[in-house]
TrEMBL record:
PANTHER family per record: INOSITOL MONOPHOSPHATASE, INOSITOL-1-MONOPHOSPHATASE-RELATED
Lineage of source species: Bacteria, Bacillati, Actinomycetota, Actinomycetes, Glycomycetales
Residues involved in Mg(2+) binding: E92, D108, I110, D233
The UniProt record lists the keyword Amino-acid biosynthesis: no
Protein name: Inositol monophosphatase
Amino acid sequence: MGAMPDRRWSSTSDVRIIERVPDIPPVDQKLLAFAVRTVWEAGEVSAARFFSGSRTVTKSDGSVVTDTDLEVEKLILGRLAERYPEDGSLGEETGEHTGRSGRRWIVDPISGTAFFVLRMPLFANLLAYEDEHGPAVGIVNLPMQRELVYAGRGLGCWRITEADGQPVACRVGDRPNAKGALTLAMNQQTWSTELVAALHGHVDLVGAINHPVVHLVTGRVDAMVMTGQGYDDRAGLPLIVEEAGGVVTDLDGAPLLSGDGSVLATNGRWHEELVDLVKGLPRLKSPR
């Protein structure tokens, strides 16, 4: 796969701005539109199955998978294979399929399967696309609240609430300092005491409403922290956050997609301050 797009930091006052390297082209708009339509369709199926029920199986790693996970992943990958048969794919449930184009789609059909099984409407459909230049498309769909956020490289970050609705531009908030910043936490039940205490003493830390990136790039919250995220969970995040004007790394400040599975995303004004706060702290609490 291609490397992460080359971006360089510049500073204006206390605001850090991402400058694009000009020889990396924007993603094809028709490809982006097709991906958005596909994920919206997948969301409609997900929502319908949420109400009708779905069979659940426990996987070898202890996590659960439902018939809906499999159905939605098959739908998304099927649509993409028909339209882009040379592309590869990485599905959370079906694994890696090597294509011939050097490009691939990354699918998490139901992010938050545990919520789905418990009949809590807090799940999402995730899709990302990587081409020879790196991340090109990122999509997060919240089907139960009919809200989809998508980003295309060089095309900005957008939100829709209907399949053919008018897109609304997304932008992170402009909070000038980290102290008291409203910060969504994901998987915090697994965090070490040190990590919880550091963040709790510096920001307003609250439990995440899946998916936290939607609330970050619409300016509803100021930051988000996640741990234990697989590649399929993270693949679309750099593009979504950066196209909305934010910054995202792992908790040590390393590039997200080559990081340790943790996620720190902010509006960029005080990102380094939070990295310095948590860098090197234990991620997980000691076993009981």
